[in-house]
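To close the chapter, one final illustration. This time we ask the reader to focus less on the individual chains and more on the assembly as a whole: which components sit near each other, and how the overall shape emerges from the parts.
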Amino acid sequence: AQSVTQLDSHVSVSEGTPVLLRCNYSSSYSPSLFWYVQHPNKGLQLLLKYTSAATLVKGINGFEAEFKKSETSFHLTKPSAHMSDAAEYFCVVLNAGNNRKLIWGLGTSLAVNP
Amino acid sequence: EAEVAQSPRYKITEKSQAVAFWCDPISGHATLYWYRQILGQGPELLVQFQDESVVDDSQLPKDRFSAERLKGVDSTLKIQPAELGDSAMYLCASSPDRVAETQYFGPGTRLLVL
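The assembled structure is written out below.
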């Protein structure tokens, strides 16, 4: 069965510094992986997705993620944090097989300090 | 830009009462999902519709929860009777495809059961 593990429940960075949110996955198949963001009082929004094309995936708002099969990782990065990036981030894997549904990590809360 | 609509945004109820949530997906999206998100956790799929048919309700507590999408457009999720442990965010999402890769989320309904 597919699963994801977000290695940090909370990350705090200063504005203008790099962001790294870590995610490891477990999958018997070639996985489809996603990062979603949830701002307070707003709906979940897709940041980016990996579906077996290029291993470096660029998303919205300057975020990108790299699929590393050898490390079973899909870490989310951004070169320079902005105050508006403060939110909850979820790493997600698409469950393969007949029952195709999203399997969610527990989330990483990102705080951006001025 | 089209969005998924949900109402109400907030609901406070007493245990043993009935509550209902409504979702209107993006026009033309055949697939509709209801999720429950407990504070500090990722969303958990409750039920998935393809048009008016239930595709997956394996995690729906059927003794108290029900969901319908009679005309294959908007949907209602009901809880009767509500229990304290039902306090959570209830999210609706829709997708233009059947494989769940790209889901668009509504703002959610936050339920508090007293």
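The first strand of chain A starts at residue 3 and ends at 6. The radius of gyration of chain A is 14 Å. With these observations in hand, you are ready for the problems at the end of the chapter.
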